[in-house]
Amino acid sequence: MVLPHHDQKAPSNYAEYLAWGDQDRWELIEGVPFNMTPAPSTEHQTVISNLHGEFYQYLKGKACKSFVAPFDVRLFAEDKADEEIIDYVQPDISIICDKNKLDSKGCVGAPDLVVEVLSPSTAKKDRSEKLRLYRAAGVKEYWIIDPLNQTVEVYNQEEKQTTNIVARVYSKDDVLKVGIFEDCEIELKSVFDF
């Protein structure tokens, strides 16, 4: 599990993170730093590559763009200086449909769709802190992919009004209709093709 890193060298805002250069990858969630340095597994990277390929093909010629980590997403950052930003993450895949949210550093504000692929070190954070953070920030659709069990949990923002957060769960034999697009369906067996 990736635990918050509380030493004094850990970045406490986005400006400090930028000053670190390429030493380590960090995320900051509600001001708490998380070191993202451990290398992902082959299955993790395969799922990301396969899914990004599906999105890339679908999005050709469309306004929306798909980005793969490392790609900085600064949440609640509109009209804030880097020193004021305390929520930034590097989702495995981000889809952004508003080009005004893109700058040379990544995304300012909530992506339309975020995908996190679970690993043993990030599973708890992806299912708790990041789920809450993405919902509060207004991410329209959040996917949590479990490569070990070959499942995808899909959380939709329109269900935000309910007190219980419930995901739709899909298996490798399902076809998943992407909620933010009218005509995009992904056969999950192609995503879990290890």
Kindly list the characteristics that best describe this protein.
single chain, 194 residues, alpha+beta, tt1808, chain A, disordered N terminus, Putative restriction endonuclease domain-containing protein, Nuclease_put_TT1808, Uma2, Restrct_endonuc-II-like
Question: Can you put this structure into words, describing what you see?
Answer:
This protein has 194 residues and is an alpha+beta fold. It has one domain (40-191): tt1808, chain A (Alpha-Beta Complex), CATH 3.90.1570. The protein has five helices and 14 strands. The protein has helices at 14-19, 42-59, 123-127, 129-137, 188-191, and strands spanning 26-29, 32-35, 65-68, 72-74, 88-89, 93-96, 102-103, 106-108, 113-117, 141-146, 151-156, 168-171, 175-177, 185-187. The strands form four sheets. Strands 3-6-9-10-11-12 form a six-stranded mixed sheet, sandwiched between helices. Strands 5-4-8-7 form a four-stranded mixed sheet, with no helix packed on it. It starts with 13 loop residues before the first helix and ends with a helix. Mean pLDDT is 90; it is low at 1-7.
